[in-house]
Write a structure and sequence with these properties.
6 strands; Rossmann fold; alpha/beta
């Protein structure tokens, strides 16, 4: 089974200012966000990851680099994938959440997100965002194989959509999932169904990941398949 670690980027200057950043360029981790990402990197240093896949936005690339840093002389390959990039919020981009909460469509986003389409020529629907993100996960699962463990560094709404799909939930339920900055969620994709191992973990032990990874390697070795991992 393929194990996917879903990681939200650390806190940014936009997060602390209450601004919907979207695809705005040059939105970086703030000091707290850097500490959050570095701490998560230390927690995951002993987890055998095969790849890190990141949204191309700066805040995700910075988080991915900090997660990679503790691996020292053996850094992971970091691949950028626009399909796990932030939702294109159109004309809402750059506005404060306090201001957006007054918009009539805010209720649609919160109560019926599957019907939400963000205004403007650059806006997309949450359904489109969900579709591309889920497709990206399926593609990476197929490319990396059933024995792979890899990380996706992305954004809150994107991760919520991926988790909703893995849980078999309608997109209208994805707002029930909370995803904090620098949080870790884990999904194991089995041949039968996705299995949710953790959601929005911001400080739990990762022993279960290490134990299952060891069991998988031992099983592969017994079957003569360890060398290809």
């Amino acid at each position: 089974m393929t194990t996917v670690l879903l990681i939200r980027h650390g806190r940014t200057t936009a997060n602390s200012a209450g601004v919907l950043a979207g695809w705005t360029p040059n939105v970086h981790l703030d000091e707290k966000g850097e500490l959050q990402a570095a701490a998560l990197g230390e927690r995951l240093a002993s987890v055998g990851l095969d790849r890190i896949v990141a949204s191309p936005l700066e805040r995700c690339q910075e988080t991915a680099a900090l997660i990679n840093r503790p691996r020292g002389k053996f850094p992971l390959s970091i691949e950028l994938d626009e399909r796990i990039g932030e939702c294109h919020y159109g004309d809402w981009t750059g506005r404060t959440l306090k201001d957006l909460a007054k918009e009539p469509m805010w209720k649609v986003v919160q109560q019926h997100p599957a019907a939400a389409v963000f205004p403007g020529s650059e806006g997309e629907s949450l359904a489109q965002m969900s579709s591309r993100a889920v497709a990206a996960v399926r593609d990476w699962n197929a490319q990396l194989g059933s024995d792979a463990t890899y990380a996706i560094v992305s954004h809150g709404d994107v991760i919520k959509a991926i988790l909703a799909d893995a849980m078999g939930l309608h997109l209208d339920s994805f707002q029930r999932i909370g995803i904090d900055p620098a949080s870790l969620s884990v999904v194991r994709y089995t041949p039968y169904r996705p299995m949710i191992e953790r959601v929005n973990d911001t400080g739990g032990a990762i022993d279960s990941l290490l134990v299952k990874a060891r069991r998988r390697r031992s099983g592969n070795a017994a079957l003569g398949g360890g060398a290809g991992h």
